[in-house]
Every structure is written in C-alpha cells, then in structure tokens.
Specification:
single chain; alpha/beta; Rossmann fold; Helicase, Ruva Protein, domain 3; 4 domains; five-stranded parallel β-sheet; 21 helices; 16 strands; binds adenosine-5'-triphosphate; DNA-binding; Sigma_54_int; DNA-binding transcriptional regulator NtrC; activator
Length: 469
C-alpha cells in the first residue's frame, strides 16, 4: 500500500530534494508552502506522516501544530528547522513532534526517519507544553544539534543519562537543561562532584549517615540522594567513584532504595540520575576499576558532547554569548571583531568551552577598545592566561615524566614497565573504538595482528571486555 506524505516547506529547492528522495522510496508526496495549504491538504486527504518547516510564509509551523495534533493524533510529524536552538527543538517535541531535524540535515537520515514514522503511525498525541526560553545552551553546529535532539528525547521520561565529553564541554549544563526542561523541573537539581569529595566521605555525602556512624558523625545527616528526592541527582566525574561507593550506588539504582551509612532502614528515593565523566570508562572497566554492571545501569542513554575544536561553528556564537554575560556581570560592554572571531575559531581549545569563556571574560576586562580585536585575543592566548586548568594543559611527555618520578621501578625493568604503561591506554583506545575487533584494532594501530594478540596477552588485556559499543 502506498503511503502519502505531506511536505510543508517554503524553500522550493529543499522541497524538491526531499520530495525526490521520498518518492524514490515509493512514498507519494504532496507539497505545501503555507499553513493554510497544509490545513486544506490535511482536511482533504489522509497522510501517514507530515514533514514541516517552522517558519512558513503565513505562520509558524510549530505554534500551529497543537491543532494538527488534536485533529490528527495518529499522524507522526517531523519538524525541519533552520532556527537551531534548543528552544526550537524542545518546542517541537512538546507540541508532539515525532522527530526534529535541524537544517542542514542529512537527507538519508531524514528519509530513514520518515520511513520509520510511516511504520510507527501510532505516535502518541502530544499536549501543548509551555515554551521555555532563555536557555543558555549555545550550539548551532551540527554535532550540538544532535545533542539537542538527544536532550529532547529524554525530557519526558526518567531514563538514566550518561553525559560524556572532555572537561569543559558543558556536561553539567546539559544535565541542568534536562532537569529544567523535563518532567522534574519542579523538584531540586542536586549536583555532586565525585572527584572533589575525599574518598572516605563519598558514601556519607551521597547516602547520608546516622548519628555515631563513624568518628565525627555527631548528628544525623541527609545525603544527596534524599536531598534530590522528586528531582534530579547529577553525579559528576563518575569515573572517580571508589569501589565501595560504586557498589552502594548500584544497589540504590537497582532497588530505588538507599540506606544511610550506619543506618538499618531502607529509604525509598525518587530521583532521576544523570551522571557524567570525562574519562573513557571502557579501559577502566577492563582494568577492574569501574564496575561493568554499574556502567550499564548509568549508560542507558549516552549523550556525547563533542570537544569545542570539533565544532568551530559554535565558537563565535559562544564568544558573543559570554560577552553579553560578562556585561551583565558588570564588566565593560564589548563586541567581538571579525578578525578576533577568526582567530578564536582556529584554536585547539584543550579546555573547551570553559577555556573560551575564561578568555572572553579576560578580554572583556582587558581590551582597550569596545571592539575586541585579534591582537587582544593573541596576547591572551600567548600569555597562556586563558584559564585552562594546569593539569589539563600539561602535555603527555610531562605527565609521563611525573608518573615516572612517582614510581619505584626495579633496575633493569624501567623501559619495559614504562612502555607497558603507555601501551595499555593505546590498545584500550583502539579496542574500544573497534568494539574489541582485533583485526580492525590492529589496522587502526598500524601493527601486525599477531603482534597485537601477543602484546594483549602479555599485558593481560582481554579484548572481549571491549565487545559491544
Ligand atoms: N553550549 C554552551 N553554551 C553556553 N555555555 C556553555 C556551553 N557549554 C559550556 N558552557 C559553559 O562553560 C563552562 C563549563 O561547562 P560545564 O561546567 O557544564 O562543563 P563540564 O563538561 O561539566 O566540565 P567538567 O568536566 O570540568 O566538570 C560553564 O560555565 C558553562 O556554563
């Protein structure tokens, strides 16, 4: 049976391309360029799916979507948008859109989503949600648009989310956005940075303790789990969690109940867990430093934040955003010169958005004129004052030297021991990228497969531990 698709798009060129691609898949496509035409077509014919642009000649395709949903609750709607803000993505899904595609989009992916929508015609009827504005999550680039799409998918459920990405890429901000825009916005958002708490105090910090549970526990204390009840608990730097705390956390996630340190009662807790890490957990699992079962519990929906250098399109909008913030915090009002913007876009940004933010605040403070020029940016970059954390800025050679200085390796073994230490993360990286496929890992590494197999066995690395994405 042939399915009808309604394509509402006022850019003729885009409409033609999409139409041709969908017709190639055997779908029958009607096109419209206005809200009025859309409504007429919907009244005349039954459609399996509608694809619609947001800004149409006579109105907003999202704002008017509520009525469409009421009249045709079973018809999936796919939104195509050139206004690539998180706000648009959220508005779209709150109005019940089946999928959201920021422009420019990947045509194959759009076709795939359309076919999928045709098959699952039972998309649930959406309700009119409120519009959330002013979210400070900037991300015009394609990779960030993908992040926005993932965010919209977890707003109206309590799925456990694991936010991955280098330091300073905005992991905490994403967690906050999910909380603020989602079902739990009325509840508390409680953030815990596992790396910042002394190891021996982590369990009591998370789960609380009873009076007298340990020396110094002079009163009962309520932990972060209980504080976050009804809301979201954000566990940052999850890779730094000690083994005992991992076990306790796993138990809490499995049972929905916690026990305070030194306490006997099981207390039911209603929290959504969002965790984050800038470390690659796979090799930690392989080494036995992170529980695999906990990893699967936390990693129900992974959201990967790309490093800033992989999304240069975001750099200028971010810089402008930080200038506005700097001004609102009492720093002089500045604008960004085009030459300065170009220079910023070419940097490596090891410290990611945080490093850019620090540089912009300093530039706002130090610039001699209202417009920040390339010279000002260059001098801040040269002086290394952008604010990258010193531990992040250290290069790998320095890290190795520091590591060696702290070791006590027997004479005659230094070279092989140190080399093995370096090989471990290299092999783990290749194996985790190739899901444990030794042939592909060997190709990636550029070494012989037998050499790889031999070294893995010598280093006691189990490639099976990397099987699965
Ligand atoms: N997309 C973004 N739009 C606006 N501000 C951002 C964005 N991403 C990050 N920031 C800002 O950059 C800073 C660092 O972000 P955040 O603390 O969320 O990073 P993180 O990945 O959690 O870092 P870490 O791993 O070091 O904890 C914050 O001040 C945040 O507000």
């Amino acid at each position: 049976m042939s399915h009808n698709v309604l394509l509402v798009e006022d850019d003729n060129a885009i409409a033609m391309v999409i139409r041709a691609a969908l017709e190639d898949e055997g779908l029958s496509v009607d096109t419209c360029d206005t809200v009025a035409c859309r409504d007429e077509s919907l009244a005349e014919r039954q459609y399996s799916v509608m694809l619609t642009d947001v800004m149409l000649l006579d109105g907003d395709g999202i704002e008017t979507l509520g009525a469409v949903r009421d009249n045709y609750p079973d018809m999936p709607v796919i939104i195509l948008s050139a206004q690539n803000t998180l706000d648009t993505a959220v508005r779209a899904t709150e109005r019940g859109a089946f999928e959201y595609f920021p422009k420019p989009f990947d045509l194959d992916e759009l076709v795939r989503a359309t076919l999928q929508a045709v098959q699952s015609r039972s998309a649930s009827a959406g309700e009119d949600g409120e519009t959330v504005e002013g979210l400070p999550l900037i991300g015009r680039s394609q990779p960030m648009q993908e992040v926005f799409r993932m965010i919209t998918r977890v707003l109206h459920n309590d799925l456990t989310v694991l936010v991955l990405g280098e330091s300073g890429t905005g992991k905490e901000l994403v967690a906050e956005a999910i909380h603020q825009l989602g079902n739990r916005k009325g509840g508390p958002f409680v953030a815990v940075n596992t790396a910042a708490i002394p190891r021996e105090l982590i369990e009591s910090e998370l789960f609380g303790h009873e009076k007298g549970a340990f020396t110094g526990a002079t009163t009962r204390s309520i932990g972060k789990f209980e504080q976050a009840s009804g809301g979201t608990l954000f566990l940052d730097e999850i890779g730094d969690m000690p083994a005992e705390a991992q076990t306790r956390l796993l138990r809490a996630l499995q049972s929905g109940r916690i026990r305070r340190v030194g306490g006997n009662d099981e207390i039911a807790v209603d929290v959504r867990i969002i965790s984050a890490t800038n470390r690659d957990l796979q090799p930690m699992i392989a080494r036995g430093d992170f529980r695999e079962d906990l990893y699967y519990r936390l990693n129900v929906v992974p959201i990967k934040l790309p490093p800033l250098r992989e999304r240069p399109d975001d750099i200028t909008p971010l810089a402008r955003h930080f200038l506005v913030r700097a001004a609102s915090e009492g720093l002089p009002k500045r604008t960004l010169g085009a030459d300065a913007a170009r220079l910023l876009e070419k940097q490596y940004w090891r410290g990611n958005v945080r490093e850019l933010q620090n540089l912009i605040f300093r530039a706002a403070l130090l610039a001699r004129e209202d417009v920040i020029d390339a010279d000002t940016v260059r001098s801040l970059l040269d002086s290394g004052q952008a604010g990258t954390d010193a531990s992040e800025a250290r290069d790998i050679g320095e890290q190795v030297a520091q590591w060696l200085a702290a070791q006590d390796i027997a004479d005659g073994e230094l070279y092989h021991t140190a080399l093995a230490e370096l090989e471990r993360p290299i092999f783990a990286h290749a194996l985790s990228r190739t899901s444990g496929n030794q042939l592909k890992a060997a190709q990636m590494l550029g070494i012989n497969r037998n050499t790889l197999r031999k070294r893995l066995s010598e280093l006691d690395i189990d490639p099976e531990a990397f099987a699965r994405g």
